[in-house]
Amino acid sequence: MSRPSDLVQGTLDLLLLKILALESLNGWAISQRLKQVSGDVLQVSDGSLYPALHKLEQEGWITAEWKPSENNRRAKFYSLTRLGRKQFEKEAASWTRISQAITQVVQLEEA
Amino acid sequence: MRFEHWFYTLPLRLRSLFRRQQVEQELDDELLYHLERKIEESIARGVKPEDARYAALRAMDGLEQRKEECRDMRRTNGIENVIQDLRFGVRTLAKTPGFTTAVVLTLGLGIGANTAIFSVVNAVLLQPLPYPDPDRIVQLMLSSPEWAPGKNVTAINEPEFIIWRGERQAFKEVAAYDSGTGVNLAGVGEPEQIKALRVSADYFRLFGARVEIGRTFSADEDRPGGRRTVVISNGLWRRRFGGDRGLVGKTLILGGEPTQVIGVLSTGFAPDPAAEIWLPLQVDPGSTKGGHYLRAVARLQPGITVEMAKAQMKPANDQYVHDFMVGSRRGTTEGFTAEPMRDAVISDVERALLLAVGAVGFVLLIACANVANLLLARSLGRTRELAIRAALGGTRRRIVAQLLIESVVLAFAGGVLGLPLGYLGLRALLAMSPGNIPRIGPHGSAVTLDWHVLAFALLVSVCTGIIVGFLPALTAAETELSTTLNENTTRTGASVRQIKSRSVLVIAEMALTLVLLAGAVLLVRSLSALAGVNPGFDAHNVLTLQMSINDSRFRTTTAVADLIANAERRVQNLPGVIALAATYSLPLEDQLGGPFVIEGQPDHSYPVDISWVSEHYFEVFRIPLRRGRPFTNLDTSLAPPIVLINETLDQGFSRGSRWTAPLSWRNGNPLGERITFSKGEGPPFEDRTREIIGVVGAVRNIALGREANPMVYIPIGQLPDALTNLNGHDLRLVWTVRTKMDPFSFRTAIERELRMASGGLPVAEVRTMSQAMANSMAREHFNAMLLTVFAGLALLLAAIGIYSVMAYAVQLRTKEIGIRIALGARPGDVSKMVVIEGMTLAFVGVGFGVLAALVLTPLMRSLLYGVGPADPGALALVAVVLSAVALLATYIPAHRATLIDPILTLRWE
């Protein structure tokens, strides 16, 4: 299974949960949104997006339904479940903790 | 939390399993939607449609692989794969019915045979004994180098039972019982001889027997002079008394004496030895009797192991030797010991059963080799199919899994076929089995296909499937992708490697078959050696009938002698009857024995076998008199006591009985010597001092395969009264009759005369001595037959194996052979080439087989007679037979090779 090389393991999950916490979206829209919010810094290949979504779905963190999309074609829309929100909070908290710690280390003045 | 998780995920799992197509469709749709949007977007930016499409697909980084990744996320993928593989496997197999049938039949035979043997092993060796907490029951035994060197004996005497019963720290309960006899039941309906066992009071509690009505013996009833009471089996109660609940308290006439019924047992009590009535043993707590006529079992106290119990018996053992091993027993030893009852019950049959297990395991291995062979041949035909699957993203693991699942499906089908085959085989097996396999019940009714056997068959099937599938699956998965796909033909490269794998399989088959054949030949030779043995007596035209004389009228020697004289007069007057004799034991059945001292040499005692016989015994069995004089009708209880000895004793051989000192007759001649049995033991065992009056031929009395023990014959009419009385309780009188023709035709007349002579006593177990001879060889016969059947099966499978490999090799080399023929090779050269190749395999297999046989056959030494385990003649014979069969199997493809048309083959492709 390939993983995006430029993303810390597990962060893709966090990003997807965050995006879906704001609104329910289909796969294509999610890929666009990812590009847009991260200003092209975080490159997520189309190939790794769908396995990641399916994994979240199978964990019960997001749920999917088929709805008409912006251009009036049927697309699979994902939205966050209550479990997913809890999971997001947990992961967000731990991300904050770790990134703060790493930032502190990185910003240490060289003595 | 858990519940919420399942609330979201369970429907998904179920959907992926049961609405697979819809889920797949949705996956396609979802990805398609993404691709279309991406393409549209690119086109909008001015990219050419073709390029936009290509770029979108590239961005996916392998569409099919991504789909597979999404499927992996479903968690149910493993199950799905198996189901998919199963379906595919069944479909593929259904397309090749010939192949499938061959494989399923081969495996079915192997699995069926294993299931049949396992169900016997299950009943005999694995099932616990049918008592509560059977592991806590031990058989109390004696180690006696004088009586039975190298093994423990179960026959014990009364003082030993009394001592053990007192070992309260080691044993919760100790029970003793005799070997069972027949007792005449009169008073209700026809008089009938009923199998009776005399048991001590704790017997029923120890074995956990429950009563339907009434109770079992009290301690008072188990004392000498206690009330005459009886406990009867549920079966007899229903059969003879119609299940009358008022029976308890009533009095029956048993052995001519009124006896009160005190209890009826519940069903389900299946003791060994079996009996229909139980009488109290009534051992005197102060007994000093030395006769070993009892058996004893004990239930261990909680927390006591067998070893601890043995250690606790040691002080009492030393005391016993000090107190009792005096007089004629001085210098001999009797060590107290114990074995778990299960071991004591199955020790005789364990080795033969394990031999059968080994043999049948070999048959299955050979069947596996054959099937692996077929699968290898088949996988070659599928090389391209597998290569294409690999190219389409099938991982090596998936492909191996697919092939293994196929072979497991095959083996499972084999198992399904094998179960009924095994059941039929089992019934046939039990029908032919000797009656002396313990624990299989009457006609093998205790051997059933229970869940143990079903689980075994399932396990064997699955393992077989994996074993046969492993080599072909690995070989197939190793195939180089590019070369295979580029090859124009499927018949090169990989095929050479295949031939090697298959050759190894054939060599293994040949070797296994040779071992089985060697085992079978050794057993058959043992059997024929046994059948050719001169037993020392003439079994032809001898009828034997058993009569219980446990009756108040026959308590004295004179009364028994009169009975015999009366019977002689009546039966010998029948036309066609030559002679009648009475005894208490027959050749080839359990023997009685005791130690004697020679007058003037009180320090040494010599245990030998003893037979009490009437005057015409030697005429009935045609045992020749070598020296001295025979018994006459003048040797009554009033005449001087006499004894005849056999040649073995005459020559001073001790054989099975180990003596403390070598025996040498004064003047080198036993005639005129005076001997006394059980000297110093007191009644009923101590005998009168007897003069040796003659020497008779030796009879193989233990078994046909064992040389005759030293033995004496004592006139039945000269026994001390106390011994006659004891024999009446413990033993049955055996009538033996020599007739001029088929002894069975005299049966009715003889029975009638015996009944009249005895005042109405019934006889039972009417048999001919020829039957007894056959019975004594039944186990050897059975072993030999079983192994011969398995070896035959193995031979057939091995022949098929070598045939299929050679036929395949010829087919593979059609082109080469065609060229050879075109270049002028004669048919002889071609067939020679094929035969040499096949026979090389066969000879290598035979070589390994001989080595394996040299290692393995010594394990069956104890089952052989008259032939050594590594018998060169037997090994040479099976090597020749196996090679001949291999030659025959190779000759067919060799002959076919000569028929190859060079023109056709060269044009082909």
Description of the molecule:
The complex is a heterodimer of chains A (111) and B (909). Chain A is of the alpha+beta class and 111 residues long. Helix content of chain A is 56%, strand content 14%. A three-stranded antiparallel sheet of chain A has the order 1-3-2. The longest helix of chain A has 25 residues, at 82-106. Chain A is globular and about 60 Å long. The termini of chain A are far apart. With 909 residues, chain B is of the alpha+beta class. Chain B folds into four domains: 2-74, no CATH class; 145-333, no CATH class; 349-531 and 779-907, no CATH class; 549-760, no CATH class. The two termini of chain B are 67 Å apart. The interface between A and B is medium-sized, with 28 and 27 residues.
Secondary structure: elements and pairs:
The complex is a heterodimer of chains A (111) and B (909).
Chain A (H helix, E strand, L loop, with lengths): L10 H12 L2 E2 H11 L8 H14 L2 E7 L5 E7 L1 H25 L5
Antiparallel strand pairs in A: 1-3, 2-3
Chain B lengths: L1 H17 L1 H25 L4 H12 L2 H10 L4 H19 L1 H30 L10 E7 L8 E2 L4 H8 L5 E8 L2 E6 L5 E8 L3 H4 L4 E4 L14 E4 L1 H8 L9 E4 L2 E9 L11 E4 L13 E7 L5 H19 L10 E6 H41 L1 H9 L4 H37 L18 H28 L2 H6 L7 H38 L10 E6 L9 H16 L4 E7 L8 E7 L2 E13 L3 H4 L4 E4 L13 E5 H4 L23 E4 L12 E7 L14 E5 L5 H10 L2 E7 L7 H11 L5 E6 H8 L1 H35 L1 H9 L4 H30 L15 H27 L3 H6 L2
Parallel strand pairs in B: 5-10, 7-9, 16-21, 18-20
Antiparallel strand pairs in B: 1-2, 1-11, 1-12, 3-11, 4-5, 4-8, 6-9, 7-10, 8-9, 13-22, 13-23, 14-22, 15-16, 15-19, 17-20, 18-21, 19-20
